[in-house]
Amino acid sequence: DFVWEAISSASERIAELRTDFTSRIGLACSNGRFLKEQFVLADLEVGIPFPAEFFHHACCNLVISYLQDPATMLKELWRVLRPGGRLVISSLKPNADLSEIYRNFVSFTQDPLEIEEGRQLLNNAGLIKEKEAAGIYHFYSEKELREIARKAGFYRAKTFRSFSNQANLVIAYKGY
Length: 176
Fold this sequence. Notes:
Layout: H1 4-25, E1 55-60, H2 70-80, E2 81-92, H3 98-108, H4 112-133, H5 142-151, E3 154-162, E4 167-174
Parallel strand pairs: 1-2
Antiparallel strand pairs: 2-4, 3-4
Helix pairs in contact: 3-4
């Protein structure tokens, strides 16, 4: 991420998940690190601070729509993936119904904190839709996501729907 607060929040959340998982599953070796994470403060549009062919997989979830130059970011992801590596990218679909995401989310949770987080997301949805209408954000169709991945050098791009059927997701591969 390029926002330090987001990295800090993600790090705290991973620690919570690790504790929760250990207590629920009762791992024999609870001091082992079964979730391996590394957080980096970086700007995807400037470059990814890893050497070429470093990762087996890359996931860019609901980020591409907010970038000024998504093609550069995808070329960088291609660079840091190993041959045969898999890329997953997603974008809200054009004219997504963000209230549907909220309704689906609250139907699966009873946690008041999570419901409040969902409400905050829904409150921000209006701003997101305004910026989409103004051309600041671009939400990609399935065809557009496949095409942008192909132009960056990826192949075998397949599309799926996610996020309560309100987002498009593409899985593609780097050739050998």
